[in-house]
């Protein structure tokens, strides 16, 4: 005797059911009449066909995933379904994202290295300017320490050095 659920699953001709299950029309007719018990794998396949619920054959991990009457695969987190081309494209999109992430990591490391070089060059320039400034201060100190001669050359040199110091600040 067929249960109500099995009766609803076996809706259609014996030939149609045989094509779905991969059995002979005679075996499908025996399932429909209740002479043979419908095997569980066939029951699950027919539920998938009727309800579109993938978890019927794939298990609890696939709960909420289903095939709509339009033949699209629907996910529990998305409103729109996906056709075969879109699902195939997802694989290539994932591959592309992985490649782009690798490129991004490489570019970030190159930028980081370039920033380090730039910072070193900038700080090197500051060090050079500070060295020039220190040398000018030393010359000024040396000139001031000299006794001013009758002609005032040391004072003129000291004045020039003081004016040059403005260039380094």
Question: What does this molecule look like?
Answer:
The protein has 2 domains: 4-74, 434 Repressor (Amino-terminal Domain); 84-168. 69% of the residues lie in helices and 2% in strands. It is built from 7 helices and 2 strands. It has helices at 4-9, 14-21, 25-33, 40-51, 55-58, 84-145, 153-168; strands at 66-67, 73-74. A two-stranded antiparallel sheet has the order 1-2. The mean pLDDT is 80.
Please give the largest β-sheet. 2 strands, antiparallel
Percentage of residues in DSSP E strands: under 5%
| Unreliable spans | none
**Strand segment tally:** 2
Number of helices: 7
Strand numbers in spatial order across the main sheet: 1-2
Oligomer: single chain
Task: Please give the structural blueprint.
Blueprint: H1 4-9, H2 14-21, H3 25-33, H4 40-51, H5 55-58, E1 66-67, E2 73-74, H6 84-145, H7 153-168
Antiparallel strand pairs: 1-2
Helix pairs in contact: 2-3, 6-7
């Amino acid at each position: 005797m067929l249960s109500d659920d099995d009766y609803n699953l076996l809706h259609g001709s014996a030939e149609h059911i045989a094509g779905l299950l991969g059995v002979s029309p005679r075996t499908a007719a025996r399932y429909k009449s209740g002479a043979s018990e419908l095997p569980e794998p066939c029951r699950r396949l027919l539920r998938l066909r009727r309800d579109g619920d993938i978890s019927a054959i794939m298990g609890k991990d696939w709960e909420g995933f289903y095939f709509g009457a339009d033949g699209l695969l629907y996910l529990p987190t998305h409103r729109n379904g996906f056709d075969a081309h879109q699902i195939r494209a997802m694989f290539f999109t994932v591959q592309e994202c992985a490649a782009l992430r690798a490129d991004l990591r490489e570019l970030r490391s190159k930028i980081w290295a370039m920033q380090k070089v730039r910072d070193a060059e900038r700080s090197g320039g500051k060090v050079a300017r500070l060295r020039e400034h220190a040398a000018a201060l030393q010359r000024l100190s040396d000139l001031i320490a000299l006794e001013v001669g009758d002609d005032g050359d040391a004072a003129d040199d000291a004045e020039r050095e003081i004016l040059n110091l403005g260039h380094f600040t």
